[in-house]
């Protein structure tokens, strides 16, 4: 009888490794195949509620107990194959894509699992194979991360060919390269800079958020054609040295830093490390453009000037900065070196919410050779940047503020102010948010502060998911104790929030979707 149970446990656990492997490979893919990502997210999912925590404890215990009680392995298979509850295999908002890299990871996961089962069979027969299979199924995030760690140097070598092709193309076309980085504001500033400079130059820009080595190599290889004068490259970083590596084959003539903040603090640990990593973009640049409304960047500007570097200070509030863009009576006023160049009306999309991003973009265009007057003439036609505080009118007549690609405290504050500005007397003001992520030790505090700030503006708050639910609830409770009463609802997924909001809003109402998390977050 025990032999039959061992065989059943082996089959069940072997089958369970398939959905478990696909589930955690999808998470790894969404996290750019960074070793450790699957295990980190497994901790988030299994720790996101007492029921889930109890379930994984039962699963792990079942895998270990299979040595003595073969049937316990079946329990482990059920937990690993179906859990954590809510994390699907294919995904809804972030589907698994079978790229070459994904297939390689999957094949190695299968080989590692098969090797573990074979070793278990050698040491303990069918029961040993069942135990090894159960441990592999329950511990699949660790297996996936181990495979990612092994493959990382291999993938680095494979990508060098595409980087070499991109570097050769850059050398042939010889565009003036603009590098833009920062904790936030990179994409908006890149879009604005490309638009302003294109009045005089032929400009190519990295699309969407193609800001790592693979994305920028693809940008160059696909978009940089002969006759291109300027290449605007958004440069991101998950750690020290990454931007320096990008600049080694894509050297910016003009380097811009938009802001330093707690975004990705989970990886950088401190703002000082963040500043050091982002500052790598300035190493070889002829001109460095800095948002000196940011205290950290104001300090960097002083240091670079002491080193004899050419620095352009930008501001959204100080007309005495080298380049400033201020709001004056609903218009954008452009100042250059203390002189008012002129003011421009808002375009059809309205005034850009972050004037500092426009100021940095204007400074970039002028550093390339555009005149202040040329920049001013193009300000009214600044394009909207998708999912970054874009405003549309919903089918029910309500104003929808889409800030779903935002995950930083400064941007959230701007979004709440925009919600206040667009509200109508007596209308509902709704904030829909899962909170902000990757803020390290500051995440709970910042999300509680976001909730308190939202309660000062909104009539309703809809909290999505479990990732920041506790912190947001803490902030909302504090606001309630202070006399700021709002209606609060909790939903599991964004589509539930959208359906809820559509049913409750009308023409005089405004809803702000502040950040969105893909469904590999709990």
Describe this structure in words.
The protein has 522 residues and is of the alpha/beta class. The chain has three domains: 2-156, no CATH class; 174-381, UDP-N-acetylmuramoyl-L-alanine:D-glutamate ligase, CATH 3.40.1190.10; 390-514, Protein-Tyrosine Phosphatase, Chain A, CATH 3.90.190.20. It has helices at 2-30, 37-46, 50-65, 72-82, 100-138, 140-173, 186-197, 213-223, 242-249, 265-268, 271-279, 295-306, 355-368, 372-378, 409-422, 443-455, 469-481, 494-504, and strands at 176-181, 203-205, 230-234, 254-257, 287-291, 310-315, 323-328, 331-336, 339-345, 390-393, 399-403, 429-433, 460-464, 487-491, 510-514. The strands form two sheets. A nine-stranded mixed β-sheet has the order 2-3-1-4-5-6-7-8-9, sandwiched between helices. A six-stranded mixed β-sheet has the order 10-11-15-12-13-14, with helices on both faces. β10 (390-393) and β11 form a beta hairpin.
Helix residue percentage: 40-55%
What is the number of beta strands? 15
Mean pLDDT: 90
Main sheet: strand order: 2-3-1-4-5-6-7-8-9
Annotated CATH architecture of the largest domain? 3-Layer(aba) Sandwich
CATH H-level name of the largest domain... which superfamily?
Mur-like, catalytic domain
Runs with pLDDT <50, length 5+? none
Structural class: alpha/beta
Q: Beta-strand percentage? A: 5-15%
Dominant shape: globular
What would the CATH topology of the largest domain be? UDP-N-acetylmuramoyl-L-alanine:D-glutamate ligase
Count of DSSP H/I helices:
18
How many domains? The number is 3
**What kind of sheet is the major sheet?**
9 strands, mixed
Q: Quote the distance from N terminus to C terminus.
A: 40 Å
CATH C-level of the largest domain = Alpha Beta
Cα-based radius of gyration, to the nearest Å: 26 Å
